[in-house]
Amino acid sequence: MIVVLKPNITKKDEVAVLKEIRKLGYKPHIMRGVERTVIGAIGDERTHQSLETLAVWPQVERVMPVQKRYKLVSREAHKANSSINVRGTIIGGKKFQVMAGPCSVEDEKQLLTTAHAVKKAGATILRGGAFKPRTSPYEFQGLGEKGLKLLAKARRETGLGIITELLSQDHCELVAEYADILQIGARNAQNFQLLIAAAKTGKPVLLKRGLSMKVEEWLLAGEYVLANENPNLLFCERGIRTFETYTRNTLDLSMIPIIKQESHCPIVIDPSQGAGRSDLVLSMCKGAVAMGADALLIEVHPNPAEALSDGAQQITLEGFARLMEELKPFIAAAGKE
Amino acid sequence: MIVVLKPNITKKDEVAVLKEIRKLGYKPHIMRGVERTVIGAIGDERTHQSLETLAVWPQVERVMPVQKRYKLVSREAHKANSSINVRGTIIGGKKFQVMAGPCSVEDEKQLLTTAHAVKKAGATILRGGAFKPRTSPYEFQGLGEKGLKLLAKARRETGLGIITELLSQDHCELVAEYADILQIGARNAQNFQLLIAAAKTGKPVLLKRGLSMKVEEWLLAGEYVLANENPNLLFCERGIRTFETYTRNTLDLSMIPIIKQESHCPIVIDPSQGAGRSDLVLSMCKGAVAMGADALLIEVHPNPAEALSDGAQQITLEGFARLMEELKPFIAAAGKE
Amino acid sequence: MIVVLKPNITKKDEVAVLKEIRKLGYKPHIMRGVERTVIGAIGDERTHQSLETLAVWPQVERVMPVQKRYKLVSREAHKANSSINVRGTIIGGKKFQVMAGPCSVEDEKQLLTTAHAVKKAGATILRGGAFKPRTSPYEFQGLGEKGLKLLAKARRETGLGIITELLSQDHCELVAEYADILQIGARNAQNFQLLIAAAKTGKPVLLKRGLSMKVEEWLLAGEYVLANENPNLLFCERGIRTFETYTRNTLDLSMIPIIKQESHCPIVIDPSQGAGRSDLVLSMCKGAVAMGADALLIEVHPNPAEALSDGAQQITLEGFARLMEELKPFIAAAGKE
Amino acid sequence: MIVVLKPNITKKDEVAVLKEIRKLGYKPHIMRGVERTVIGAIGDERTHQSLETLAVWPQVERVMPVQKRYKLVSREAHKANSSINVRGTIIGGKKFQVMAGPCSVEDEKQLLTTAHAVKKAGATILRGGAFKPRTSPYEFQGLGEKGLKLLAKARRETGLGIITELLSQDHCELVAEYADILQIGARNAQNFQLLIAAAKTGKPVLLKRGLSMKVEEWLLAGEYVLANENPNLLFCERGIRTFETYTRNTLDLSMIPIIKQESHCPIVIDPSQGAGRSDLVLSMCKGAVAMGADALLIEVHPNPAEALSDGAQQITLEGFARLMEELKPFIAAAGKE
To answer: Three-state SS for A296?
Structure first.
């Protein structure tokens, strides 16, 4: 930690700070600058208590941490890219992967039609929500276990792995029984108890970025998964909340190079949530592929206008087939398969 | 719903929209304007499916909802202010209330000292976290049940009601056994399963505003509590996330008049989380009182510099006593007791 | 400046950093921590070139400035509060001041009626826009010089000082001839050429906070005024841009204690722009007074529904009189006159 | 405009609204819905006064505009893409263009070295700031006219067109004499007087997006240029301000498909300002190319560590050459030359 003192403080005030630093277990190191005195407090910031409380002492101007607080998810901990094996599909390897399917599982016909269509177009994982977190209590909340059974049926018929959302600790066992990847939604991205429960199932966890989550907070939420002995973590950028209202969220594609720099875990882009508008999905996908994403998570529906949730951001089966075709040259340009 | 069509579309495209509107159960009503044709879709937006999916049809420019989506929390549903009775302390009535105590319960001495001191200074509810949601898995996570027992002891000794955070459905029964008010934290504000579980305990629920939650989303999260047959809901503004870094969050005091306009539920202000800096707490409290808040939620610690969590935002026992004194003229000016 | 090195770098890479630090005129001071080596670069950060470029060297993890970059506006430079004398009205002293008037000067009757009414209710400065910055080129752009002449007439009739917006360097001489305070709008808050030109007129300058301006940037924009030898600067918070759409802006009242801490200049609150809704103005004003603002800037119009600009945020003459009455107990509670 | 009335209002209150709508020149059209009555106010919203003031009437719940407020920049006004011809270089056509050069012009050697290097690597326009808007008055403010003369010299030697920033109306004539494209910076994006002055020079104008500018505001700022009879407008996304601090700004690449949808003007991406970190520039460029940008604006410096401004975001000459090489497959995939 770096502690910056205010100018012109008394010797006594300075000594009090040094004493407190030592009391909290750090070794202080003084540097006298032109206008300010700066104290380096030497000690492991992850095992010692934070010195940030000093910031409100009248003689202290600022306290700045030096170390990163995440460990297991960091690139330092694991130099090589890590990858996730989902029923033979490798996410985070040479091959670019596409996860696609409806926002919500609505009925057998809707799901199976979609599953066959996305598989034919080249998707390798099927997405579909059985339990849905909805802003209003009066909206469709998902088919629950019935939805999970339909997903399992679609997997049997198509061979596609399944990704579906986990939104309650109470559903952990049930959802883990059916899913190949557990998705943690943006609104639960700092629901740490859910993260721990998900980690403990042993299934791969896809962690969406919260609506106003900073990079460090996102990595630390991921750290909850790895610290609970589950190495299979995927980060998924799905748009952040900004002042802009033209799009539902602002898809922050800079997370692709940033997660690659800071972490060894794969990075997935969700352009459907990201924009909230199906007419922007193709363009977003091209950008994500070009910038080095490991996979896409795309909402596809046989008839978006009648979808029970988020119709505005789902694309049609034909639209998806076209999109997969149009992405090919960009996947090649990015050096992927 | 209002559906705005693009200019110069074909008759056929217009008819398709009208047909879809009828199919989804609304009655269309056409208005031809100067440059645009606008269709009013008449029908209850809360029971019919949303028309927002039409927004991505090529012939549609925009879809705008007309109705508010919240019902039970709204001022329309309940004209008078509602109030919550916590062991004889009325929140939402003529008397201004102050909830105070440490961020985390750390040990018996810390808690009891604080409880006696805040009671003496005029607080009527004791706050203290037994289960703590922490950004990093390596930080202090609270004393758990031991903390709850200490809170109960403090209640026995001081007579103060207890507010403490509920952060896991699994703890519902346990926390509800000890707490007089269940606090739902900002990071769980859209953890709908937790909201439902909290509501079902029958205990009053204090719902903090999420870091990037819009007014409507906050009211709808509150709707989850009332829709699960628990009328005892308090809204608590604790700062939102903005671009500003000088303060940890931006305390949005405009929520006081806004919640009063839109809802009948009491509004509480948390200036400690709101600024993340103890030196701003007093000023924030004055503003909150003047603007008509029903209560304050303040973090107080015997020795903030050695607090196990969020030391920078906790004030001392003496600071709290001074604050209570300084608030008096503002409480009087606001017409409260 | 503090330069944090990455762990496990070579000696040669470290030496290169030290060399560059010296080359840019700083004296390096090494601290070896548990996981990281940190270099304190000693030298005046305001006269030396920034070391922030080092942040992109592969062996450097982070560079953190230590000094504040503003000087003349800072509390350190001038311990006492400074105040502005506008035709005998002191802003920043014991007496609380209210500036009020229409968003735009529209015609003689509208302005004079308003001027007399706000004076009678207790306002001491008259506001009114003659040149209006409008989001669209097709909106009313103000009466220009004719508006200034009407403001001068209102001053002659009422004795109220005049504040009006300066939005172009070309108008500097003209506006300064009529105005007692030059207002710099939020959209021009970092139009540095305009700030310099305004400063050079010698008239007091009221600097609104830009829509997404951080505290440091705002203070530095103010520094442009003082550095151009004009000591008469007022800061004015008028709401920042956030994700919230219920209000037009989010009025950040925490700026009152913050500007008081960091600077000696008076702080004014504009609740009209701040919320964009006249029904929230009274509540915002109460908060601002309680938190220690030096003055308010309020939009008042004889008939807001027919105002040529921003009608939704202007209050009526009667509303203003009531507001002034309701503020009295809060002004007293805040220890002002 | 759509005016939504509150439920259960009196007939008299409704009539008052209808009267006001007519008075402001619109023709009201009533629709009675299930819970709300909605009035369509028919009339051209760009020539009539706004009805938004009605929003604060007690009987009115909301007012929603129907028309878009921009006209000349809109895709409706001009179906085909427009393009800008800069000394034979076409921006907005089949060929992808790259503008590159130093943040600030520092001296002859720095500029000429860079100009020759970027030309060799494939850039077709040279960028370089002669007048620099700086957050602090104590930072390097640019070489002024001397810088412009160096840019002219670089143009003579390399044949590259010149883009440079205009930040003051007073410099209009001077800068327009040297520049081929006038750049309006993010902090001046709503400095409407500057936009008008820039438009009137007749030179092409590149308009950066303001730090917290919504799409509609940006398009309207562009409208100021076209409405002043200058058809040569380029939009440039350079990152918006969000809560994220890992990057200096959040580059919003979704602006590429959005500007293409809403407007006929070319869209340029500035990845240097966008991230504020040179190590992210290459990845951002790939995304921008893939998503259909017409051009890039990249900061390049012979020795970024010693740059007089924004060193952290400038890339080296070698880095630029490599980047141009790496972009080739993506430019081809995007169907450009």
So the answer is: strand
Q: Token pair of A149, please?
A: 């059974």
CB atoms within 10 A of CB D30: 15
From B212, B241, B243, residue closest to D241, measured CB to CB: B243
**D227 vs A276, which has greater pLDDT?**
D227
Q: β-pairing, D205-208 with D233-237? A: parallel
Q: How far is CA D54 from CA B130, C10, C138, C304, D10, in A?
A: 49, 68, 20, 9, 16
Which helix (H) or strand (E) segment holds residue D274: the answer is helix D271-275
Contact A132, A96 (CB under 8 A): no
Q: Where are the alpha helices (DSSP H) in B24-167?
A: 108-121, 145-158
Q: Considering only CB atoms, which chain C residues are within 8 Å of A42?
A: 31-34
CA angle B13, B19, B25 (to 5 degrees): 145
**Identity at B15, one-letter amino acid code:** V
d(CA D55, CA D39): 13
Residues near A197 by Cβ (< 8 Å), separated by ≥ 6? A169, A172
> Which residues of chain C fall short of a pLDDT of 50?
none
pTM over 0.90? The answer is yes
Q: Looking at chain C, how many residues does it have?
A: 337
How sure is the predictor about A312, in pLDDT bands with cuts at 50, 70 and 90? Answer: confident
Residues of chain A within CATH 3.30.70.1140 domain(s) are 2-64
Q: Which residues pair with D205 in a beta bridge?
A: D182, D233
SS3 C38: strand
The CATH architecture to which B84-333 belongs is Alpha-Beta Barrel (3.20)
Instruction: Identify the weakest region by mean pLDDT among A98-102, A244-248, C39-43, C333-337.
Output: C39-43
CB atoms within 10 A of CB C196: 18
Contact C36 A67 (CB under 8 A): yes
Chain A to chain D Cβ contacts (< 8 Å):
117
Q: Please give the DSSP secondary-structure letter assigned to residue C1.
A: -
3-state secondary structure B86-124: ECCEEECCCCCEEEEECCECCCHHHHHHHHHHHHHHCCC
Mark yes or no for CB contact D31/B38 under 8 Å.
Answer: no
Of C215, C257, C283, the CB nearest to B292: C283
Give the ipTM.
0.94
The CA radius of gyration of chain D, in Å to the nearest whole number, is: 23
What are the structure tokens assigned to D244, written together? 């994220």
* DSSP state, residue D17: H
- The Cβ-side half-sphere exposure at D157, using a 13 Å CA radius, reads 19
Phi and psi at residue A130, to the nearest 5°: -100, -40
| Interface mutation target, options C138, C219, C242, chain D, most CBs of D under 10 Å | C138
B166 near B131, Cβ under 8 Å?
yes
* Nearest-neighbour CA in chain D from C154: distance (Å): 26
Hey, which chains touch B, using 3+ CB pairs under 8 Å? A, C, D
Q: In angstroms, what CA-CA distances link B45 with A97, C255, D4?
A: 38, 40, 14
> Is the CATH code 3.30.70.1140 the one for domain C2-64?
yes
Distance (Å) from the alpha carbon of B288 to chain C's nearest alpha carbon: 7
The backbone torsions φ and ψ at residue C291, rounded to the nearest 5 degrees and listed phi first, read -85, 0
Low pLDDT (below 50) residues in chain B: none
Helix axes B317-333, C317-333, angle to 10 degrees: 140
Contacts 24+ apart (CB under 8 A), A332-337: A332/D329, A332/D333, A333/A290, A333/D290, A333/D329, A333/D330, A333/D332, A333/D333, A334/A96, A334/A289, A334/A290, A334/A292, A334/D286, A336/A94, A336/A95, A336/A96, A336/A289, A337/A94, A337/A95, A337/A96
Q: Are strands A233-237 and A205-208 parallel, antiparallel or unpaired?
A: parallel
User: Are A31 and C40 within 8 A, CB to CB?
Assistant: yes
Domain with CATH 3.20.20.70 in chain C: 84-333
